[in-house]
Amino acid sequence: MEIPHLPSPILLVTDDSTESLTIGASLRAEDPALELRLISSESDFLLYLETGALALVITDARTNWTDGLSVLRAVKIRYPHCPVIVRADIDDEEILEEAIRAGAEDCLLKSPRHVLRLPALVRAVQERIKQQQTWREAERHSHDLFQYSEGLICTHDLDGVLLSVNPAGARLLGYSVDELIGRNLAEFVAPVVRHRFGHYLALIRQEPHIRGFLHVITNTGEERILAYHNVRREGGDRPPYILGHAQDVTELKRAEAQLHTYAQQQQRQADELEQRVAERTTELQESRRLTSQAADRLALLHTIDQAILAEQPLVTILQEALPRVRSLVSCLRVGVVQFDFDTQEAMLLAVESSTTTLLPTGIRGPLMALRPHSMNLAAFQQGHPYEVVDLDTLTDLPFALLTVRAEGIRSLLSLPLIAGGELFGSLNLGKAEPQAFTAMDKAIGQEIANQLAIAFQQDRNRTAHQQAEAQLQEEAEVKAALAHVGEELMASLDTPTILERLCQLTIDVLRCEQGSTVIWRPEKQAYVVAATAGHTQEVDRMLRSLTFPEEMVPHLITRLKEEDVVEVAIDEPQNFLPHSLFSLTGARSSLYIALRRGTDLLGCQTATYRTHQRFHTTQKRIAQGLAHLASLTLANARLVEDLEYANRLKDDFVNTMSHELRTPLHIIMGYTDILIDGLYGEPSGDQLNALQRISLSTRELIDLVNNVLDLDRLRKRQLSLTPQTLGVESWLADLQTSLLDLHRHPTVHLQWETAPALPVLVTDPEKLKIVLKNLISNALKFTEAGTVTVITQPEGTGIEFCVKDTGIGIAQEHLALIFEPFRQVDSSTTQIHAGVGLGLHIVRQLVDLLGGRVAVESTLGMGSTFRVWIPQHHPARP
Ligand code: ADP
User: Each residue of 555-591: pLDDT tens digit?
Assistant: First the structure.
């Protein structure tokens, strides 16, 4: 171990130089590095004292320039901690005592033996000084601590009586240091914990130190919390005491308490939060589930909607929808049943099941068999769903429900499919557990049911529409066929022609293979074939040669008398026709269409297939119409034939009569003229008047008779044409002369306007004269006052004669009629103007014959204009 150095430098104050060497040797033996300064004069001493370079002073008690005490004092004044050792002779004991009191560290007797002890002494002093230094240091520390510590530092005895307290501690309690000394610490302990103070005192007596918290009440009554660490001190000359050190941790504690409360609160909030989060999470999961369910549901409704709009077939819509409904409502089985209230039947239109089912799509049965008796159909019809919460509680399960129960279904929800107030069927959902349908399931199910009901409604409407369309088409087909038949048949009034056409038309419009027209011939007392179609010439000939007495086909005749159309097939048991009839023509399936006149059966038209093909309704309807049309046409033809016959009789009669009348009338006219001319004597005024009337009427009668004869000839085309080259002007002059004796009102002026240089006409002048005479006489007849103008002018390749009057005019609607024979606009005018309505008819016939044309324009009350155009050259007639 290394020996520590001695304090250095050491001042050695002495007069004895010999001794100083001994001392130096002895000390350097202890520490060779030691610096030793020998002070032998006051000036040296003062110099060294000034420099301060001194660690220890060894001084003699007496020197010739000073004494030890003075040195001691001088040193201690300047350097109180610098140790001083005083050497004295044995007789200087007083000085030594004095020196000790004055602060010398040690004393040493002057003797060689003691010189030897000096190093040890110096070391002891050195040790002591060091110790003292340490103590001083510690004391300073503890003093500083005591004085300046922010905490409470105190001492108290074992009973708690305060012995000392630091200023900060006193401040903490709100007192001065003096006020506290001598008081028991217990007084300052907070009353609530004061009982624990005794326990503390007992404990500190046993334990060397304890820690804890002390609640104290300050002078201002405030409670503060101190954290203490107290130590029991014993030994030495003092009775045992307690050294206490405490820190004010009130704020800390409060903060801690607050922190604790806060932490607790936080924890509580965190717990609450956690709880809420958990709840929200559940809610969120539920709502997410609902949202996704709602999305699925919307998507499904949209799909159904689109399918409806796209007019997809009902079954396709159902087949697509049901699997999605099943997953949406999570059930084992979904089915859609259609109700038919007319037949009281129900049919399973579509089904979606988790297992193979004994109730598959397409199964049908009575409505009653598919639903339990407990089901209230009326309520269902009004839109109330039917629910079976547990199939096991029902005793009257019908077959359908027994089956689904066997497939594992316990609860059942049946939702009505209602659209437009009409119940179409039900949407049935089945689940495995009893009471399994939630309100949400029901809502979703009903929503889908409503949408599906619209699909049902649309399907029904579509079917109805298609049926109506088909009906309409059939109607149109029938109408078109009959219109065609009507048009064709009406085009002729000749019975044999009609019969031929009828036969061909029948197989055309019925689109069959063969037909024949059979007519009753009274003279033969049998039916004969009057026309055939679709047969070979040979068969045709053969058929036409046959006669069918009524007895041969009595059943057919009986039925035809009752029905318009009779269908007969060769292989039918009720076939009542002789087989030979079928084998002859090869027919297998036939329609017999009655031909009647009034109620009498005139015959029948047949329509046949050589195959077993049957006639469908449209064909039968056409046949029915055909029967009526043919009967009508035949009746018409017959009527016309009768009429023509009657007409011929009438014409013959009128002709004979006219011929017979003409001669006497001419005689009457001749004699009347002789009488008027006075060849038998001048007649009186009255006589002349009467004669003139007779003459006029006779002429009119002759005109009429001539007209009738002309007409007859025209009809019989017996009127021959004798065309001549004709100068129109001279011909007009002739015409004017012949009109002189025409009756006219005195107020009517007849004027002629003839264009110059008219071309020469090649035509029949007599016929043309009749035409013009008729028109002019009509114009004069129907004009009370005003003018009748005859205008002649070239027009195109001919000449136009225009007869214009300012008379009564003709209503627009009558213009088309006046050229018809025996047509007069109204009888009242005829009564006034005489005539029978043949004039214009003859005009037209004649103009026609001359290759010209006639036209009329007229305004009622204003007058009429008749234009006759005659070609320059008479066309060659065939
Ligand atoms: P009718 O012998 O009766 O004159 P018509 O054939 O000559 O027979 O004429 C037919 C009908 O046309 C007449 O009855 C008359 O009503 C009408 N009619 C003909 N010409 C004229 C005319 N110029 N003005 C008015 N009505 C006329």
Answer: 888 889 899 999 888 776 566 666 677 777 788 888 9
Tell me how far the alpha carbon of residue 822 lies from the centroid of ligand 1, in angstroms: 10
Nearest ligand 1 atom to the CA of 808 is 25
Q: Which residues are registered as beta bridge partners of 749?
A: 787
Nearest 5°: phi and psi at 759?
A: -70, 165
Determine which residue's CA is closest to atom 19 belonging to ligand 1. Answer: 778
* 817 phi/psi in degrees, rounded to 5: -90, -25
pLDDT by residue (tens digit) across 187-237? 999 998 888 898 999 999 998 899 998 899 999 999 999 999 999 988 777
Atom of ligand 1 nearest to the CA of 783: 24
C-alpha–C-alpha distance, residues 518 and 524, integer Å: 13
Rounded to whole angstroms, the Cα distance separating 849 from 872 reads: 14
Q: How far is the CA of 442 from the centre of ligand 1 (A)?
A: 89
- CB contact set of 370 (below 8 Å; sequence gap of 6+): 337, 346, 348, 398, 400
Look at residues 156, 126, 155 and name the one whose alpha carbon lies nearest to residue 142. 155
Name residue, tokens 């504690």: 253
Atom 20 (ligand 1) nearest CA: 778
* Protein residue closest via CA to atom 9 of ligand 1: 837
Residue type, 385: P
Give yes or no for a contact between 745 and 783, defined as CB atoms under 8 angstroms apart: yes
CA dihedral of 131, 134, 139, 145, whole degrees rounded to 10: -160
User: Own/partner pairs for 510-513, CB < 8 Å, 24+ apart?
Assistant: 510/591, 510/607, 510/615, 510/619, 510/622, 510/623, 510/626, 511/619, 512/591, 512/607, 512/608, 512/609, 512/615, 512/619, 513/608, 513/609, 513/610
Q: Find the 832 Cα to ligand 1 centroid distance in Å.
A: 12
Which residue has a Cα nearest atom 1 of ligand 1?
A: 837
Residues with CB under 6 A from ligand 1: 778-779, 782, 805, 807-808, 810, 818, 824-825, 829-830, 835-841, 864
pLDDT value of residue 492: 82
Distance (angstroms) between ligand 1 centre and the Cα of 695 equals 22
Beta bridge partners of 350: 336
CA-CA distance, 354 to 362, in Å (whole number)?
18
- For 266, the token pair is 């936080």
Q: How far is the CA of 785 from the centre of ligand 1 (A)?
A: 17
Which atom of ligand 1 sits closest to the CA of residue 836? 2
Q: What is the DSSP letter of 335?
A: E
Question: What contacts 437, CB < 8 A, 6 or more positions away?
Answer: 387, 389, 411, 413, 429, 431, 445
**Any residues with CB less than 8 A from the CB of 203 and at least 6 apart, and which?**
210
CA of 786 to the centre of ligand 1 (A): 18
Q: d(Cα 871, Cα 878) in Å, to the nearest integer?
A: 17
For ligand 1, atom 14: residue with the closest CA = 824
CB 203 within 8 A of CB 212: no
Kindly tell me the number of DSSP H helices and DSSP E strands found in the chain: 23, 29
Report the nearest-CA residue for atom 18 of ligand 1: 778
Q: Give this prediction's pTM.
A: 0.42
CA-proximal residue: ligand 1, atom 22 (nearest) = 779
Query: 480-517, pLDDT tens digit by residue?
Result: 988 988 888 888 878 888 888 999 999 999 999 999 99
Q: What is the DSSP letter of 161?
A: B
Give the separation between CA 835 and CA 700, rounded to whole angstroms: 8
Residue 372 pLDDT more than 80?
no
Q: Which residues contact 829 (CB under 8 A, 6 or more apart)?
A: 782, 808
Q: Whose CA is nearest to atom 7 of ligand 1?
A: 839
Give the count of beta carbons closer than 10 Å to the beta carbon of residue 22: 14
Question: Ligand 1 atom closest to Cα of 863?
Answer: 24
Q: First vs last Cα of the chain: how many Å apart?
A: 179
